[in-house]
Amino acid sequence: MLTAIYTAVGELVGEGADRISFPVIAERAGVNPTTLYRRWDDVNALLEEVAVAALTRDGESLPDTGSLEHDLAQWADIIARDITRPERVRYLRAMVSARVDIVSACPVTETRREQASKMVRRARERGEATPTVPQILDHVIAPLYYHVVFALPVDHEYARRLVHDVLTMVR
Amino acid sequence: MLTAIYTAVGELVGEGADRISFPVIAERAGVNPTTLYRRWDDVNALLEEVAVAALTRDGESLPDTGSLEHDLAQWADIIARDITRPERVRYLRAMVSARVDIVSACPVTETRREQASKMVRRARERGEATPTVPQILDHVIAPLYYHVVFALPVDHEYARRLVHDVLTMVR
DNA sequence: TAGCTAAAGCAAAGTTCATTGCTTTTTGTG
DNA sequence: CACAAAAAGCAATGAACTTTGCTTTAGCTA
After folding, report:
1. pLDDT tens for each residue of A100-151
2. Which of A40, A104, B117, B143 could form a disulfide with A46 if both were Cys (CB 3.0 to 4.6 A apart)?
3. B150, A103: Cβ pair inside 8 Å?
4. Is the ipTM value over 0.85, yes or no?
5. B31 with B68, same domain?
6. Is residue B49 part of a domain?
């Protein structure tokens, strides 16, 4: 039931369907539209629910190359490739247009913060000088996501440049 | 005519109207819905047009303090205060959800790029070492907008920190 | 199992949206 | 001024969305 609905939403978002409404989702999921109308306030609410589930599921293993520079480079590249996938873009946009209060406990940012923390901690234990975790979030993560949601180009070179920049902040 | 439409959209967005459709906008503007349907492809297109007009209208005079550090600090602060206003946030969100196609360049970013270019040029003419314009966009503008659209906190201190960070990139 | 409760389905009705052909008004120019 | 082109209004039509009351099914407990 709920799985079928999530799957339907995922498929529609993935296909880039121009029209994602309760009736459309319901038909795809093989359920009655009324069910959706009764459970969620509007389409965005459902969309965001699915988006959070999809965006926080980190199948990615965190890089551990032995140097923060390479860790960050690989990590930024993984993220860049991930969030530029069409369905990820749509999910991110859905999250943005969704309600403010729910997003504020932004699970996506939290995941990134934890990952950055882990890499920085390992680097410091190795005796490396590192930028701070907030710096990494502000100067690597933020520009990547900013580019995606505002439809600006994101590629390998860009991710690499951001990592290079943040590493110059090490004092 | 066109002014009335823009005004109507502005009011609706400002009020946080849950339902912004052509018929609704038309009624508010005192025009016929057909006019809207014929002129714009869909509501998002109109919404983005108004958003761009509102977001790029720079009544702000560009800081010119005699040092890039202070110019950037004031500039970042002006932007931070501006884009955290509720109606600005709504416009930004509207732009994000409207921007489905990767084709067009983001006018908001363009404005910021021009402003950054001007400040950097002046600084270089004074003989100051400066970060690059893309660096300023990536490490000051991007984090600010990212925080706004993902409902993360933005304040004076944050803007100041970003400017400080980007200035450490000067080689 | 019987019975109670919550969830899902069904169907009908109302509302809003979106499209289209045609008429009217405005605008700009010879 | 007059006329042609563009823009806006009007009205009718169909489609899609939303809501609602009621029925049916599923799940759970005594």
Report:
1. 444 455 777 888 999 999 999 999 999 999 999 999 999 999 999 999 988 8
2. A40
3. yes
4. no
5. no
6. no
